[in-house]
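Can you please make up a whole protein chain along with its backbone structure tokens because I've never seen that pairing?
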Amino acid sequence: MLQQILNLFGVPSSDAYRRAQPLILVNGLAEQGESWYLNRNVWQEQFDVHSPGVLVYGGPVMQDRLTGGQPINIDFLTDRLAEYLDRFVQSPPYHLVASSLGAQISVEYAARHKEKVDKLVLLCPSGFGSVERFPVMEGARSKNYQGLVESTFFNPRCASPRIVKYYEEKFASKPWRRAVFETVRGTKSHSVRDKLTLFDRPTLVICGREDRIVDPHEVHEAVKDIPNYRFVMVPNCGHAPQLECPRLINRLVVEFLSSGPATA
């Protein structure tokens, strides 16, 4: 009777929630809310979506770590992801959808915990090549927030006032700004290229052809001969395809995660 009443309000049964496979969103240097606001609601229709706060620059975990003189590196961030999943989700195997720096974290997690990962989607992944730019550092030093955001997109009009305002507000905080700098310092030289073959789970890699931060051709070179990887290059797109081409990315992700085993 209770479920019949809930159905009238569009609330699915607890069985429906149990059947939905966990989909974990792992953001890059931008924090969670600004990374997936055009995607989460779409994916949540079919998956149990979680957004772990791995990178929360103003939070006590990162601030205490900086106060103690400890680095913010890929090992630390991967441990943060593992801790969140073990404590608050506890229902592997997981789908991981990750962007930029978050892709490095996800590859490390998959290499360490192969049995807990079903499929991966890596958007403009960092750590696959040799040369990467960090406009977040340049923009913060010059206070050129508009230029910082626009460098992420092929089409500058995709740099919404919401995102520019987000950076303006965040960079006004010295502790937040320091945490970003230390995160870049602790992760910029890290490579996951030698970890790509340590797991055999289906993996979709999506890059923007006009990405000015990560070289998409280096990413393609890194994965082209690995059987469980599928590579997609999106034209007229920069470093944030989930924001610049949300309808396409939403569809690609749902189709990939809902399909059977991927082919190269």
The chain has 14 helices and six strands. The longest strand covers residues 117-123. Residues 74-89 form the longest helix (16 residues).
